[in-house]
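Changelog note: in this version the structure field was regenerated for every chain. One regenerated record is shown below for reference.
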Amino acid sequence: MASSDSDDRPVIGLTSYLESAKFLVWETEAVLLHRVYVDCVVAAGGIPVLLPPVTGGYGKIMSTVDALVLTGGADVEPARYGHEPHPATYTRPERDAFEFGLFAAARRQRKPVLGVCRGLQVMSVALGGTLTQHLPEATESTGHQPAPATFGRGTVTLAEGSRAAAILGRETKTLCYHHQAIDRLGAGLEPVGWAADGTIEAAELPGEFTLGVQWHPEQDTDDVRLFTALVDASRRPE
């Protein structure tokens, strides 16, 4: 465990945004994250720590936390999977470099990883996968991102025997906000969750707690089962 005092709660690292923001009297570059992420970690029994995408030292960073949440955000740079960018694609290369490095370090150290929306895509591309860059052109469904800053409500079917199903059951209600999706999964990842239109909504690596979901579980702070499973896994390394 990374914790060294009498508090035995696992320390959960959450990747964060580097964006222009306005707060109080300031309009400046800021490191930030939707508060609901940290609220879910606290409710699940962990201590949240924000990880800003401004440095290397990925192994050192991962050695100080017990688990990693790859949070939502901008699109992964298409050059990382050999594609030209779509006009609707928007990227943050500094986040890509940081999160790919953290993900590799987490796996080397056998630390549990939960990927949320972009986080699932980071995991898949890091393992050699590709993405559909603009989902409205690939499916008639509009529920994945119905309007700016509006989460789409849906239902995901989860594969029997999967880690995701063990946590959430064979079916779960979701809040989605993504215009990209998995095209070809990265090496070793197994698809374990699907939307009604066939879009892959969850994938995992068998034999380790490396689980990504395409929806936003942090938006329902009354249901922290995924975060609780991550916290519990960080107490019991596999």
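Spot check on this record: The longest strand covers residues 17-23. The helical segments are 35-43, 58-63, 93-108, 118-126, 163-168, 225-235.
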